[in-house]
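Q: Structure tokens for this one, please.
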Amino acid sequence: MSDALLLAEGEAVARAIHVLAVVVWIGSVWLVTMVLLPAMRQKPPEQWTREFDAIEHRFAPQARVAVLLVLLSGLYMLYADNLWDRFEQGAFWWMHLMVGVWLLFAALLFVIEPLVFRHVVHRGAASSPRRTLALMLWLHRVMLGLALAAIFAVVAGSRGLF
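A: Here is the predicted structure, written as tokens:
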């Protein structure tokens, strides 16, 4: 089997992993943002903080794995297709958006959430539970909106729409 064929097959596998990881990652963000957090409004603060912690405890490791798979598969596709120069071209602005959204989510998942956000949520839930929940929902909506915009832009851009 030729090196070119191996590289092409590897790129196809990387693309499939990339898409699956994005679906798991952003699908989970959709569920938390559109279903779980709004449902928490009906519950007393001590109950929603306990439930949110339990959900986040299961969700965060899965999201971290998905985000890492997106990174690794994306880097492989850049290498396999030799696409690095696209970052120098304004026509591929959507690739910059994709990387920026990834960096934002990675910073949140790997740094801000475990070191800062968890403590802020618990303190806020104790002193101002409704405001804290509203802020969490707003932040999730912003992140989801950015992610959906990036997905649209990347799919449309990779198919020549932009």
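A few notes: The chain has four helices and no strands. Residues 31 and 37 are 9 Å apart (CA to CA).
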